[in-house]
Design a protein that fits this description.
Radius of gyration: 18 Å
Structural class: mainly alpha
Number of domains: 1
Largest sheet: none
Number of helices: 11
Length: about 260
């Protein structure tokens, strides 16, 4: 795969770094950063499995930073998290091993199919409800939460974008968590699934570490600035930007893989 590095021009690296900066910025406010980061790697000429692996390598750092904020503010539900985190990690590892069995062009087709699906889920309105339970039954703790974690973890390993939203909505709807607790718990499990997927990609050699390092810096810097973006109506503006950026990239990818 050295040919990818040899043909990776400086301006291309700058463009991908900008994309990951924007992804970190919008993800910290409105979610949906994966809709920008993943397509940017593909458009830069990174093979699909390597794009998935490198993207996973980058985003686990941003997820860890976000989780740290929730832990400091004591929003994490440890009972659910500790009993489910292993299921999330194993599910992600299995999902990643599965996607690695696909042919490169088939992976591109899968990504192009799942991108608009994850986009629809990410932009489902998520209201904030304070009147939700904070105590959980044995079925919630030992059956529903681990099952949700394994299934969505497998999706994260197989593809990725939208994982946090899937987890938040599942915890909100099925375990009746309030939205803040669901978000905190989702971050913890998302980190676990990210690590599980990362290990599988790393063992198979499908990560470009040299490319990932500057992208990590750009992504974290974007997330830091995004978290400080507090203007009224800011989330709606950012979501609109994500949609427009996603549409441009998605059309470009369709042209790249199927018409050019």
């Amino acid at each position: 795969m050295m040919g990818v590095y040899e043909n990776f021009e400086v301006w291309t690296l700058v463009g991908v770094c900008i994309a990951f900066f924007i992804a970190g910025f919008v993800d910290s406010i409105a979610g949906g950063g994966g809709l920008i980061s993943m397509p940017s790697l593909l458009l830069a000429g990174i093979p699909p499995q390597y794009a998935l692996g490198t993207n996973k390598f980058v985003v686990i750092f941003g997820t860890a930073v976000a989780l740290g904020n929730f832990v400091r503010h004591k929003k994490l539900i440890y009972k659910i998290t500790l009993l489910s985190v292993g299921f999330s990690l194993i599910g992600a590892y299995a999902g990643t091993k599965l996607i690695l069995l696909f042919d490169e062009r088939d992976v591109a087709s899968v990504i192009l199919f799942l991108l608009p699906v994850s986009a629809l889920v990410i932009f489902i309105p998520k209201g904030v409800s304070k009147m939700r339970q904070e105590s959980f039954s044995s079925m919630d703790t030992f059956v529903y939460a681990p099952l949700i974690s394994f299934i969505i973890g497998a999706y994260d390993g197989f593809f990725g974008p939208g994982t946090g939203t899937f987890l938040i909505l599942s915890f909100y709807l099925f375990l009746h968590m309030n939205m803040l607790s669901a978000s905190a718990t989702a971050k913890a499990l998302n980190l676990a699934s990210g690590l599980g997927s990362f290990f599988a990609f790393a063992l198979s050699g499908h990560i470009f570490y040299a490319l990932g390092i500057p992208l990590i810096v750009a992504n974290i810097f974007g997330a830091y600035l995004g978290s400080r973006f507090a203007l009224k109506g800011g989330e709606k503006i950012v979501k609109l930007f994500v949609i427009l950026s996603f549409l441009v990239m998605f059309v470009s990818l369709v042209l790249k893989y199927f018409f050019l």
